[in-house]
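lol ok so funny story. i was supposed to be doing the assay writeup but got distracted and ended up predicting the structure for this chain instead. priorities right. anyway since i did it might as well share w the group, maybe its usefull for someone
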Amino acid sequence: MKASFRYFILLVAVVVMPAASSAQDEELPAKSKALERVEQFKKIRLMEVLGLDEQTSIKFFARYGNHQRVLQELRKKQLQALGRVQTLRKGKSPDAEYEKVIQNLQTLEGEVRDAKLKYLDELREILSSKQIAEYLVFELRFQQNLRELIRDGQRNRPDPLKW
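and the output, tada:
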């Protein structure tokens, strides 16, 4: 089962990653069907791992969805700031301009941290401490497994230039 899950995630990652990497500086890519399936799978697993009943899962996923939207908006702003760095590099701008971008990125990083802390506080209203801890472990492992699968897939991918 674990191997099939890993291959499923790998397949989805291989399909999703090219779309994500082709995003322009100012826009995030539209969600692909594969990404939506991964998110649905993640939600089902979260319900199982956390042992959520119907009422609690409705509350949890409402807050989860809001949190994901906030993080997505902050990531979009971060990508825009990093795009600004590209522009500065091409224009051979002075350090003062880079400093502004760095300050902006630091501010955005603080906003990401604050959003995560606020989200955890909101979860305390609907989940037990044990469920929150399980959620945090699940998120960490899910991201680690996804990165691992992507790395494995890239290592095992045949070189199209080799015969």
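The radius of gyration is 19 Å. Residues 2-156 form one domain.
back to the writeup now i swear
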